[in-house]
Amino acid sequence: xxxxxxxxxxxxxxxxxxxxxxxxxxxxxxxxxxxxxxxxxxxxxxxxxxxxxxxxxxxxxxxxxxxxxxxxxxxxxxxxxxxxxxxxxxxxxxxxxxxxxxxxxxxxxxxxxxxxxxxxxxxxxxxxxxxxxxxxxxxxxxxxxxxxxxxxxxxxxxxxxxxxxxxxxxxxxxxxxxxxxxxxxxxxxxxxxxxxxxxxxxxxxxxxxxxxxxxxxxxxxxxxxxxxxxxxxxxxxxxxxxxxxxxxxxxxxxxxxxxxxxxxxxxxxxxxxxxxxxxxxxxxxxxxxxxxxxxxxxxxxxxxxxxxxxxxxxxxxxxxxxxxxxxxxxxxxxxxxxxxxxxxxxxxxxxxxxxxxxxxxxxxxxxxxxxxxxxxxxxxxxxxxxxxxxxxxxxxxxxxxxxxxxxxxxxxxxxxxxxxxxxxxxx
Length: 427
Ligand code: GTR
Known about the structure:
Bound molecules: beta-D-galactopyranuronic acid
Number of domains: 2
Mean pLDDT: 94
Distance between the termini: 46 Å
Oligomer: single chain
Strand content: 15-25%
Structural class: alpha/beta
Number of strands: 9
């Protein structure tokens, strides 16, 4: 008995220690707040039909997120993308998959920036000439980090130093080959009838504050004079996902109408913003996306707007800084971001030990998006209370909170696969 308590005490202490100090982790200290109205236009008119939502309210909300949170894609952001297949094999993953590595040049062939997309597809489907539904998303450490297959090269771009994967001097190395394979579960995907297409997020915009010069920020117009509502890095990463989608539309082996976009943490904020900006993504999934992702900002639980703007000044547009310590003044909150996915299926995943990301706030933004799904006669989260651990819920708005900490793992993927198979009518 004593031992059990010691274990519980140890688990609680290590959870508490894993979170940055000086922030609120106490539910009773969440301030009273009122969420901005979803179903009322900026002019004060009620939104009562799906058509009202699509024609008026959706674009109002999208514009508010562009102006105040993520920033706007520049008008001249059009590329004549050149795609070059770098490598292909139909003997991947022990002969079960086709692997394709495609380079998308955004400016001109042979020049940076380019996005290297790593694709795996079930071999049997490719051989039968059938297009395959896929999951897509950006990875943190390079395509080589999601697989042990040596044909996937280590990227030569800027890398965040990270002792856990052995990245030093802002360079990636062989040390991270396969290091985060558990976050992608490619074998499970292939077995379940899906493909995977992923790219390194640093191919689009390196993840540091350089005064908006590197990555695609330098590609269009003047990078030096970005306005307060011009795109931050999350918006560039989301834009990069859309360029990948442009490619999927041209690859006959990919079913571009059944693409689920997903991402972990900052890349979960990215998958949500990509799904909001680009309705070609048929399902949108975020894992542990937290502040600026699925978590309601007004709760100020765990990471806050001020903290995120201070630690990562390049993620959001400059206007977002106005809401440091003034979350209640934001014209939007993150339930409105979730609602921008309607009527498409959206899935929000939390992890119980990831208190920094505010699991309850992630659930609530899904729940509060329900009225928009209702306009489309679709059922959202169904349950109105946050479910028990490891109990997935929801129809068109899926949610679970699994055991463990900040990561994406097999449990998460098993739920995403079930959710996608149901909505893509694969069962
Ligand atoms: C943290 C940040 C979170 C989350 C995370 C990640 O440091 O505070 O918002 O995005 O990084 O992306 O791993």
